[in-house]
């Protein structure tokens, strides 16, 4: 994980207060190195070491940042639209993630 990554945290609130179910990230360096945006990529939301399962959920995301990243490298021109666009299209929980809610 780097400071330039896009982070996702999955949390819930209950009688015991806020509980983090897991986290995941998209490395922006990978977008630049492969020369393509992440479009409908499935990432793992992983829980902590005490969780029942290492994977709490899968998240399908799109991170359109290639044009903005090229600008930071002195390549390309400024995009006409948003410099970074983020979309979340699907969240699928692992069955073990629900044990954290109890």
Account of the 3D structure:
This protein is mainly β. It has one domain (6-101). The chain has helices at residues 28-34, 66-72; strands spanning 6-14, 17-26, 38-46, 55-64, 85-93. It has a three-stranded antiparallel β-sheet with strand order 3-4-5, with no helix packed on it. Strands 1-2 form a two-stranded antiparallel sheet. Strand 1 and strand 2 form a beta hairpin. The two termini are 30 Å apart. The model has no long low-confidence stretch (mean pLDDT 83). InterPro entries: C2_domain_sf.
Q: Based on CA inertia axes, which overall geometry fits?
A: elongated
Enumerate the spans where pLDDT stays under 50 for 5 or more consecutive residues: none
How many helical stretches?
A: 2
- Could you tell me how far the N terminus lies from the C terminus, measured between alpha carbons in angstroms? 30 Å
Widest sheet: strand ordering = 3-4-5
Task: Kindly summarize this structure in a few lines.
Helix content is 14%, strand content 46%.
């Amino acid at each position: 994980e780097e400071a330039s990554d896009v982070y996702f945290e999955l949390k819930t609130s209950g009688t015991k207060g806020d509980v983090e179910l897991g986290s995941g990230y998209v490395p922006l360096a990978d977008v630049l190195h492969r020369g393509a945006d992440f479009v409908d990529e499935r990432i793992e939301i992983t829980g902590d070491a005490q969780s029942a399962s290492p994977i709490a959920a899968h998240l399908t995301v799109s991170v359109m940042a290639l044009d903005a990243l090229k600008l930071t490298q002195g390549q390309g021109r400024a995009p006409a639209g948003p410099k970074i666009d983020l979309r979340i299209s699907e969240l699928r929980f692992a069955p073990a993630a629900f044990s954290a809610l109890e």
